[in-house]
Design goal:
The chain folds into 2 domains: about 220 residues, Periplasmic binding protein-like II (D-Maltodextrin-Binding Protein, domain 2); about 190 residues, 3-Layer(aba) Sandwich (D-Maltodextrin-Binding Protein, domain 2), CATH 3.40.190. By secondary structure, it is α/β, with parallel strands linked by helices. The protein is built from 18 helices and 12 strands. The protein is about 45% helix and about 15% strand. Helix 3 runs antiparallel to helix 14 and helix 17 runs antiparallel to helix 18. Strand 6 and strand 7 form a beta hairpin. Strands 1, 2, 3, 4, 5, 8, 9, 10, 11 and 12 form a 10-stranded mixed β-sheet that branches. A two-stranded antiparallel sheet has the order 6-7. Keywords: Signal, Transport.
Amino acid sequence: MNKKKWLATVGVSTMLFGSVLTGCSGGEKAAEKEGDKQAADEKVEVTLAGWGGNPVEQKLLKQTLDEFEKKYPNIKVKYEVISEQYMDVIKTRLIGGEGPDVFYLDAFEAPALIETGVLEPLDQYVTDDFDINDFEKPLLDAFKGEDGKIYGFPKDYSTLALFYNKKMFEEAGLEVPKTWDELREAAKKLTKGTEVYGFGVAPELARLYYIAESKGGKVVTDNKASFADPKVVEALQPIVDMHLKDKSAAQPSEVGASWGGEMFGQGKAAMVIEGNWAINFLQETFPNIEFGTAEMPTINGQKRTMAYTVAYVMNASSKNKEAAWKLISFLTGKEGMKIWTSKGYTLPTRKSVAAELGYDKDELRKVFVAGAEYATVWQNGTNLPIIMNNFNNQFVSAFLGERPLAEALKEAQETANKEIEAK
């Protein structure tokens, strides 16, 4: 039995178990109330699992958890870092009935996990003072199930923005591009052979999704791949042409870099599209680079960008649900979120916290905040992981000139849908 089926079984068992509890007799309910009163006076341990982060982020999380434990002295948080194969480990533990009470869940993975029934709906715990409307709507909606219930509250996010080298732009006498056509022309003028490329490209679906759909085509339709649509090919062809025809774009590996931020920091790209995470990286690793950020260039007159977000979710089988909710509500509430996002490594999903910390007016970060309301969240159905893998494999071959883009995407779509049907 595959993991998805196992998880579905766990979900059914959880629901059945919940139904049995609902049918308790009056005597049992009275005993439960007495037990709840007793439990309120006892020390409760809540397990929290995540994938870690850089030392500053780890310090900020510890600070946030310390404040939580001061506020709720009867709740002890046991934090565990799962550094490798995070989702595989989480799924295995959920199957075995040993999942953490609270854990990180990426929006990309959320639809499939919500479908299994192993997550606790959180609507029933929400009180008026939690203020759901304060969250950026696209980010909150990413953790809603098909039943309309909320299964997670987003802890942070980033959108994409254009990073540009101020010195290179000044020397070339160029303005920051506001449209994709302007970006393509600027990239040509900024390119200096193979020493400096005008544009650094991340040739992967997670970065190109919003471009792929900009001409009216769909990457995913009815939970199956549909990116061979001529409208998708038309939208993505300019990216390939910048590499093969204009010679003004390259991917990081072509210049010995591991990602766009490094390529940009080394001065091998005059422009890259990256997330908020690149700001601190560049300031710390390449302090001599003078750079600016701008909202993504428009496509067909429309503003578009991507958003990546992670939520705190609750294990439906948790034995400490009230304590688990207190932890989630603190971490994603105004107080906890302000501590966690205070250094700018991640952005607050609450509009009020972004305003309080000044990120909506910050010279470098305001463009990321502005993009949140119109961003496409990196998520689409339960089969996106399969669709993504096949897209990436074949798009790179087209980007490198090994085959036409339409042909590459057609093969990728067919392979993806065969894999989906065979699940």
